[in-house]
Amino acid sequence: MQCRICENEKGNRLFKFKEMHIGLREEFTYFQCVNCRCIQIEEIPENMSKYYPSEYYSFNLSPKSENVIKQAIRRQRDYYALFNRGFIGGFIYRWFPSPVKLRSLYRVSSLTKDSTILDVGCGNGYFLRVLRDFDFKHLVGIDPYVRKGEDYGDHVKILKKSIHQLSGKYDLIMFHHSFEHIPDPCDTLLAVGRLLSSDGTCLIRIPVVDSWAWKNYKENWVLIDAPRHFFLHSYASMQILAEHTGFKIREVVCDSGLNQFYGSEQYKRDIPLVADNSYKVNPSKSIFSKKEIRLFKKKAKQLNSIGQGDQAAFYLEKIHS
Questions:
Q1: Where along the chain do its domains lie?
Q2: CATH fourth-level superfamily of 13-318
């Protein structure tokens, strides 16, 4: 078993992981490189579409129905999350944070409403439509598993393509929990380098194995997500990838949440993530008390603060000779 990241062949450790998101419970063989610590699937299934059914969450995201007052409050909060400006929005955000995906963009210092943005693994394009509502004008999403491409008009286009089929230049290329689904991370980053503008940013948000959750839950860690996640990276394996493809990692920010606890605890009890009694689906039917959920949220913040969260955002920039 040769590591596809650092090419190490010695001492790599085998694991058996089950598909538990949908609840198929099929077993898949993975291994962890003893050198760079990246966890990798041994063999990618031939038919991956089986593991991305039409009800898969990223294909079905849609805005919640809200009254006018709630919409105004949410917009103030999300504006603060996106641009890090606005006293009222900041106050709201402190108590009711926006989705992490939105907040991750404020660290992209060169981002403007005229920036060209590519979202790789965009699902149905919901996040791009959120950005459109904040007047971003050049928004493209790609996803090989969408049923068909969509042109939403008003600056949003979704393509059923891979990154290797694209041309043009983008100021921001982002992977929000899609990079771990890609079978060729090195070639993908080379394609990013070809498409990224000279002062652009590549944002990669992924699970990380340098985390409390992996160390403590192992095969029950919810973000293993076999077989959809082909690679579960470490900080070391991401550094190797960046160096091999002409990038430097400018910043890394842990942004994990409470799912590392409730999802993993459910898997220990053989409860799939989309089961009727899963906290993700029906919190009131779940096995967790409100007190336990509060403790999960608190612990997630603590782990993020010490770099032990199970998700992180990597901000990559081109190395200029």
A1: 13-318
A2: Vaccinia Virus protein VP39 (3.40.50.150)
Tokens of 107: 């660290």
Do 279 and 223 meet the contact criterion of CB atoms below 8 Å apart?
no
Closest to 5 (Cα-Cα) out of 247, 234, 304, 294:
234
What are φ and ψ of residue 183, in 5° steps? -75, -15
Tell me the pLDDT tens digit for each residue of 141-167: 999 877 766 656 668 999 998 999 999
User: Is 309's pLDDT higher than 90?
Assistant: yes
Structure-token pair, residue 275? 């089961």
How does pLDDT run across 10-48, given as a tens digit for each residue? Answer: 999 999 999 999 999 999 999 999 999 999 999 999 988
